[in-house]
Amino acid sequence: MQQSMAAFGLCVLACAVLGAPGPEMAGRLPPVKELTLEQARQRVLEHQPAWAAAQWDVRAAAGRARQAAARPNPSLTLEAENFGGQGDFNGFDRAEYTAQIAQPLELGGKRAQRQRAATQDQRLADYDLEAQRLDWEAEATRRFVTVLHGQEQCALGGDFLILAEAFHNAVAARVRAGKVAPTEETKAEILLAQRKLLLDQAWQDLVRARSQLATLWGAATPDFERAAGTSPTPPPLPPLAAWLDRLPRNPDLSRWSAEIEQRRATLDLATAGRVPDLTVAGGVRHFSETDSQTLVVSVALPLPLFDRNQGRIQETQAGLAKAARLQRAAEISATTRLTETHQALVTMERKIAALKGEILPRAQTVFEAMMKGYQLGKFTYLEVLDAQRACFEARSEYLEALASYQQGRADLERLAGEPRQAGNGE
To answer: What is the mean pLDDT of residues 246-256?
Structure first.
């Protein structure tokens, strides 16, 4: 027993060293002993490079909206005529100089439609940023749950390593008493070695899960010792109708109103492009021969004989029709995914209830009875081994079901457009 516990302690120590915060994190984030789910989410939103990069898209959209409101710049034209020729026009004595300022005037409401499209483009950037925020929070929740599950699997493996050691001692005692063959002690030693391997694998899985969680906020090595909390028994799941009512909050869906409005504004802008813009110019002309000046005024109006923006209008009409179809497709997809996820969680709830209320207590009772009976010679080694395996598998399956439920709940909350509040292990 002492050797087994020593091996267990060395395993724990080795895994702790493997997962200890390294010098790479110095100056970035202070290491913590216990990391809560809310802290994990906050670290992701404050230090995830991809999330930080996504926020610049909103600033870029704001810049486009600002630029859309700008009016066309005027242009300055300088001309010189009637110089450098032959005869009377040799030199600059009879030269004429003209200076004009030309101002394009946008007609047909182009500027207003351009601003309208840019405003909707800015709304789209806000929706997309919100969707990414929910994605990162959901991913942080899933990885946090994986760490919790790994911790509980390690605890379970440690418990059954202790049981395997106790069973080995019981078998050895019966072998020494001559009540069973020495081969049974060999089998018990094999079982003990297998439990040690399972525990070692569980710890390696936990080390990997901790690293994968820490990488979300850019940590080279985990900067926390353990995830706070345990996998709780899930509370009653709200009915499907309640989740469907929350579905419009999903920014992946609500963005489509801005998308369609942006496409309409683009279509109106293309339609306005059929009206040619007017350019008004005015200036002064100087006559060198008489040293006099006159005013010059001009108006330029393109004649829309060949290009009436037909292709651009056709393109934007197709884009608007496509957006309407994509909106409907997104609604159907989100509704289907939410319904399937909810149904899977309902099934998982029943499984968890059955495991906790019936299977786990019975498996534990049978195993304890078998252990006592084996010491009294009432049961064989194989019968005790089967009971121990059934008990271990039931507890492991229960932990798997809890983790799967929490992962699914994170997916459901993401589809509903808002993360769940952090609680004990949530």
So the answer is: 93
Task: For residues 365 and 373, give the distance between their C-alpha atoms in angstroms, rounded to a whole number.
Answer: 12
Nearest to 251 by CA among 332, 131, 120: 131
Structure tokens belonging to residue 32: 């913590």
As a whole number of angstroms, the distance between CA 310 and CA 292 comes to 48
Q: What sign has the CA pseudo-torsion 19, 25, 28, 31?
A: positive
CB atoms within 10 A of CB 316: 22
Give the pLDDT confidence of 360-369 residue by residue, as tens digits: 999 999 988 9
> Among residues 201, 209, 175, which one has the least CA distance to residue 189?
175
Q: What is the pLDDT of residue 10?
A: 38
d(C-alpha 108, C-alpha 270), whole Å = 10
- Domains: count for the chain: 2
Q: Pull the structure tokens for residue 387.
A: 């009971």
**Segments forming the whole domain that contains residue 246:** 2-71+112-273+326-416
Question: By the 8 A CB rule, do 46 and 60 touch?
Answer: no
Helix (H, G, I), strand (E, B) or coil at 413: helix
Own/partner long-range contacts of 209-212 (Cβ < 8 Å, ≥24 apart):
209/143, 209/146, 209/147, 209/149, 209/150, 210/19, 210/147, 210/150, 211/19, 212/143, 212/146
Answer yes or no: do 304 and 399 share one domain: no
Q: What is the reported pLDDT for 9?
A: 43
Average pLDDT, the chain: 87
- Rg of the Cα atoms in the chain: 37
CATH classification of the domain holding 32: 1.20.1600.10
**Is residue 424 a part of any domain in this protein?**
no
- Is residue 14 scored above 60 in pLDDT? no
What pLDDT shows up at residue 3? 41
What type of residue sits at position 99?
Answer: A
What's the pLDDT band for 28 if we cut at 50, 70, 90? Answer: low
